[in-house]
Structure formats: structure tokens, C-alpha cells
Amino acid sequence: GPLSERPLMEVRLGELHTWISTCDFSPQGLLGAVQRAWSSYCAKYIHVKQGGPAGISMLLAGYCLLSYGWNYQHFKRHRWRKYH
Amino acid sequence: MLSRLVLRAAPAALRALPPPVAVGVLHTTRPLHTTQQSLAPVPPLPEKGGEVRHGFIPEEFFQFLYPKTGVTGPYMLGTGLLLYLLSKEIYVVNHETAAAACILAVIVYGIKKFGPDVAAFADKLNEEKVSAAQAMKDETMRALQTAIEEEKKEQWRVEGRTYLFDAKRNNIAMLLETNYRERLMMVYNEVKKRLDYQVALQALKRQKEQDHMIQWVEKNVIQSITPQQQKESIAKCILDLKALSKSAHAAV
């Protein structure tokens, strides 16, 4: 289909720049994008008849990574070595 | 998933058309519950979710790297990344690492041991809900089916209307006929009564006249018998009797 309508996973690396330029960065557009991403994630991993640990564990892993990233400055102080 | 997008887009597209066209289009594009295109029965949930390896890495990642790096590519990437983060201390090992490791071990052990049982229990709950709904649906279907048959029967009964009305018409004709004949009979009786009365009247009159005349004649005759005639008739009778007795005596 046309470039602006394709989801991110089907966009090639070379076309990424043009794809980003076609994106809608207004608040409604961003909100819509977030909603679409969330609903597609739910439809794929959570709203299934026989889901496994995959659905929540991915969310938890993402939460762990995010919280580590937010507290990185605090963790940097507890390094074991001075020179890497 | 794309089918679900299509299903979600269809009502909006239908609403965009002007109402009469939308209604017409609705009738043509939405034969109720006969084809796959109908909106009403929601498509069922997929059986299994997206494939995931080791619990939290989607399979698509491995497929994405397979053409260029083969099977071991993502694992090499993971190992290299891990060693890089540890050596550069971008990931700092502290007490939370130990805690995370313990928690992860416990969680993995719990899932491996109790996962299937919990899954079976949840499946049983789902199954009960679905079977209850299905039973209700079957019940309503059966009820509607019997209602349809009853309706068809009623429609068949309606065809007997003509016979019913014929019978009623016959009844009414019979009643009218009976009534007419009764009245005819009544008229005949009444007329006969009147005529009988006249006849009886005339008969009575004649009878009375006859009696009266006989009486009058008898009275006049008795009056006309003078005493002298009476004597003569008695003497004649005695003579006749004597003659008769003589003849009878002779016969004996």
C-alpha cells in the first residue's frame, strides 16, 4: 500500500525517513498512534484463548528496562570500577 | 487482524453514505447471518498468541535476523550485548541484581510447575461460560424453530378458511330456509283456521235451521192432529193389531 498507510514493521530502512515525514505528530496523532500500538499488542498477545506468560512478561521486561533507564544516573554512582 | 480492521471500517463507510442508499446498501451487503461478511457474529478470539521465545522475545525478531545471521545470530547478539553492558558497566551489578535473579528463578519455577494446571482451570472456566451461552443460543434457536413451524401451521390453517365460510354459509341458508318454511306453515295454518271457522259457522247455521224447522214441523203436525183424528187412528191401529194377531195366531 501507500507509504503513509503502512505500519512501522513493514517499512524498509531506506524508506524510514520518508515514513517519519508522513507521520502525524499532533497530540491527536500521537495519541492515535499510541492507541493503535497498544490495541495491536493486546490483540496479538493478550486477547487470545490460550495466552501464556508472554503477554505480561514483555510488559514487565519493558517496565524494568524503562525504570533502569530513568534511574541510570543513580546507578552510575555504584559502579565497581573507575575505568572501563 | 486486517479482517478486524475491515470489519471496524465497514460501519463508518456505511454511515458516510446518504441514509436511503445506506439502507439499500445495508440490505445488499448484509444478508443476515448467511455469509461470512456479516457484522453481527463477532469473530472468535485467536487460539494462540504471537510466538515468543524464552518467555519475552517475540519470534519475529529471530525471523528478522535469520536470513543474514542464521540460527545463532540473535543469541550471539544477545551474548555480545550482555557482555558489553556488563564490561562497560552500563548495567551495574548491585544488590538489586541478586534480588532480580532470585525473583526470576522463583517465577520461572512457578510457571513451569503450575502453568499447565492453571491453564487447564482457566480453560474449564471459559468452557463453562461458552457452553452456557451456547446452550442459551441453542434454546432460543429451538424455540424460534418451533415458533416458525407453528406459524407455518397457522398459515396452512388459514387455507381452510374457505371451507369454514362455506359451512357457515350453509348453516345460515339452512336457518333461513327453516324459518321460511315455518312461516309458510304458520300462514297455511292460520288460513286454514279461518276457513274452518267459516265452514263450521255455516254448518252450525244449517244445523240450527234444520233443527228448528224439524221442531216447527213436528209442533205444527202435532197441533194439527185434532182429537177426532186421534180417536180414528187409535181405532184403526186396534183393528190392524187384531188382524195381525189373527195372522200370527194362524201361522203358529
From TrEMBL, chain A:
<keyword id="KW-0066">ATP synthesis</keyword>
<dbReference type="GO" id="GO:0046933">
    <property type="term" value="F:proton-transporting ATP synthase activity, rotational mechanism"/>
</dbReference>
<comment type="similarity">
    <text>Belongs to the ATPase F chain family.</text>
</comment>
<dbReference type="GO" id="GO:0042776">
    <property type="term" value="P:proton motive force-driven mitochondrial ATP synthesis"/>
</dbReference>
<dbReference type="GO" id="GO:0031966">
    <property type="term" value="C:mitochondrial membrane"/>
</dbReference>
<keyword id="KW-0472">Membrane</keyword>
<dbReference type="Pfam" id="PF10206">
    <property type="entry name" value="WRW"/>
</dbReference>
<keyword id="KW-0375">Hydrogen ion transport</keyword>
<protein>
    <submittedName>
        <fullName>ATPK synthase</fullName>
    </submittedName>
</protein>
<keyword id="KW-1133">Transmembrane helix</keyword>
<keyword id="KW-0812">Transmembrane</keyword>
<dbReference type="InterPro" id="IPR019344">
    <property type="entry name" value="F1F0-ATPsyn_F_prd"/>
</dbReference>
<keyword id="KW-0406">Ion transport</keyword>
<keyword id="KW-0138">CF(0)</keyword>
<keyword id="KW-0496">Mitochondrion</keyword>
<dbReference type="GO" id="GO:0045259">
    <property type="term" value="C:proton-transporting ATP synthase complex"/>
</dbReference>
<feature type="transmembrane region" description="Helical">
    <location>
        <begin position="54"/>
        <end position="72"/>
    </location>
</feature>
<keyword id="KW-0813">Transport</keyword>
TrEMBL record, chain B:
<keyword id="KW-0138">CF(0)</keyword>
<keyword id="KW-0813">Transport</keyword>
<keyword id="KW-0496">Mitochondrion</keyword>
<keyword id="KW-0999">Mitochondrion inner membrane</keyword>
<dbReference type="InterPro" id="IPR008688">
    <property type="entry name" value="ATP_synth_Bsub_B/MI25"/>
</dbReference>
<comment type="subunit">
    <text>F-type ATPases have 2 components, CF(1) - the catalytic core - and CF(0) - the membrane proton channel. CF(1) and CF(0) have multiple subunits.</text>
</comment>
<comment type="function">
    <text>Subunit b, of the mitochondrial membrane ATP synthase complex (F(1)F(0) ATP synthase or Complex V) that produces ATP from ADP in the presence of a proton gradient across the membrane which is generated by electron transport complexes of the respiratory chain. ATP synthase complex consist of a soluble F(1) head domain - the catalytic core - and a membrane F(1) domain - the membrane proton channel. These two domains are linked by a central stalk rotating inside the F(1) region and a stationary peripheral stalk.</text>
</comment>
<dbReference type="Pfam" id="PF05405">
    <property type="entry name" value="Mt_ATP-synt_B"/>
</dbReference>
<keyword id="KW-0472">Membrane</keyword>
<keyword id="KW-0406">Ion transport</keyword>
<dbReference type="GO" id="GO:0046933">
    <property type="term" value="F:proton-transporting ATP synthase activity, rotational mechanism"/>
</dbReference>
<comment type="similarity">
    <text>Belongs to the eukaryotic ATPase B chain family.</text>
</comment>
<dbReference type="GO" id="GO:0045259">
    <property type="term" value="C:proton-transporting ATP synthase complex"/>
</dbReference>
<dbReference type="InterPro" id="IPR013837">
    <property type="entry name" value="ATP_synth_F0_suB"/>
</dbReference>
<dbReference type="GO" id="GO:0005743">
    <property type="term" value="C:mitochondrial inner membrane"/>
</dbReference>
<protein>
    <recommendedName>
        <fullName>ATP synthase subunit b</fullName>
    </recommendedName>
</protein>
<keyword id="KW-0375">Hydrogen ion transport</keyword>
